[in-house]
Amino acid sequence: MHLPEIDKFSHLKSPLHSWDPRVKIISILTLIFSVVLVQDLRGALPGIAVAFILLFLSRIPFSFVFLHLRWVLLFLGVFCLIICLTVPGSFLVKFGFLHVSREGIELSALVSLRAISAVILIFPMIGTTRFNLTLKALQTMKVPDKLIQLLMFSYRYIFLFLDEGQMMFVAATSRGWTKKTRFSTLKTMANLVGMLLVQSFERTEKIKDAMLSRGYSGKINVIDDFNLHPADFVKACLIMACAITLHFSGWIIA
Q1: Which of 85, 113, 167, 211 would you label with 238, given CA atoms 20 to 30 Å apart?
Q2: Mean pLDDT by 10-residue block, N- to C-terminus, for the chain (254 residues)?
Q3: How much is the pLDDT for 180?
């Protein structure tokens, strides 16, 4: 069963793995905002190129990224198809009463490039650092503790939630239940999901009592500490320069 371990390759060695998590998050987030705000393809194309370069430098396998990216691509495919058929302009292709415009194709390409670039940049930003260190970095950046706890518990227990769900469906299958397109199948699946939610609610009370008994105060205590080095600021300056250059790339190319 595939589990969404975004920090699965945080043990590797690369310039992004050795980057201070605080500076890395701020720098790449700036780059992400810069990418999604470009207004034409002349800025979006260099943006996706920078995203792939950072992904290559992070040494995170492309197969791992594509595994998470495939749902984004599926959504973008449907969304871009709608844009191509609904945006008015100079028509290129006609299918009965449907028309594909040049402006629609350009807009769908721009939206796709910006979205794919933003998603790809998340992997070098978060996937090159252990998740607990990423949360600690957010804590030092004064992100609200409630939001950090929500991220922490969601990431921690989603694996248990998925594993229990799989075991429940395996148990039902071993008793002769099969997935079919009929009302009884939908009813059984609803019962299984309901049982899973009830078990999850009961577990939260036990987890809360166990954590409070161990001195949990609502903050993340991580033994590792952060140390800033000159190389961290050099990398940040390079990323910031890329973010600024994206908005002037149209002038440069023109």
Answers
A1: 113
A2: 69 90 92 90 88 92 87 87 80 72 86 92 91 85 83 78 76 74 71 76 78 74 77 92 80 49
A3: 66
* Sequence-distant contacts of 69-77: CB under 8 A, at least 24 apart: 69/116, 69/119, 69/120, 72/115, 72/116, 72/119, 73/116, 76/111, 76/112, 76/115, 76/116
Amino acid 182: pLDDT? 66
- Where in 52-180 does DSSP place strands (E)? 91-95, 98-101
Give the 3-state secondary structure of residue 169.
Answer: helix
- Which phi and psi (to 5°) does residue 205 adopt? -65, -40
Of the candidates 228, 240, 221, 227, the residue with the CA atom closest to the CA atom of residue 26: 240
Tokens encoding 27: 């720098």
CA distance 189 to 128: 37
Q: Is the dihedral of CA 5, 159, 115, 73 positive or negative?
A: positive
- Signed CA dihedral, 149, 151, 152, 154: sign only: positive
Query: Which residues are within 8 A (CB) of 27 and not within 5 positions of it... i.e. 6 or more apart?
Result: 235, 236, 239, 240
User: Are the beta carbons of 132 and 222 closer than 8 angstroms?
Assistant: yes
Which residues 6+ apart lie within 8 Å of 1 measured at CB?
A: 162, 163, 166
Q: What pLDDT shows up at residue 123?
A: 92
List, in sequence order, every beta strand (DSSP E) within 91-216: 91-95, 98-101
Q: What 8-state DSSP symbol labels residue 95?
A: E
pLDDT at residue 39 in the model: 85
- φ, ψ for residue 67, nearest 5 deg: -60, -35
